[in-house]
Amino acid sequence: MNITDRSECKDMSNEETSESKEPIKIEKLTPNSREENLIVKVVSKSQVSNVTGRDYTRLRVVDALVGDG
After folding, report:
1. Number of domains the chain contains
2. Is 1 a domain residue?
3. Does some domain include residue 46?
4. Range of the structural domain that residue 50 is part of
5. Which residues contact 24 (CB under 8 A, 6 or more apart)?
6. Fewer C-beta neighbours within 10 Å, C or N terminus of the chain?
7. Is position 42 within any domain?
């Protein structure tokens, strides 16, 4: 799962999706859950790390602890 700072997120609230699903709670997720809509609150996050991807692209990565929003 990729998580980015909300300030970097693209606003997709007006875009249509192939399946309009209601957001679900984190507790309802299973290992087989796919393409679910979630609203979460970031509880804490680590410092940003700069890493190099397999294709040698430069990435900024952060670990985030999230909970139900």
Report:
1. 1
2. no
3. yes
4. 6-68
5. 36, 37, 38
6. N
7. yes
Query: CA 67, CA 25: separation in Å to the nearest integer?
Result: 9
Q: Characterize 7-20 residue by residue with b for buried, 16 or more Cβ atoms within 10 angstroms of its Cβ, and e for exposed.
A: eeeeeeeeeeeeee
List Cβ neighbours of 41 (8 Å cut-off, separation of 6 or more).
Answer: 66, 67, 68, 69
Pairing of strands 49-52, 40-45: unpaired
Query: Contact at 8 Å (CB) between 38 and 23?
Result: yes
**Distance between CA atoms of 56 and 33, rounded to whole angstroms?**
30
Tens digit of pLDDT for each residue in 14-69?
A: 444 445 678 888 888 899 998 888 888 899 999 999 999 999 999 999 999 988 86
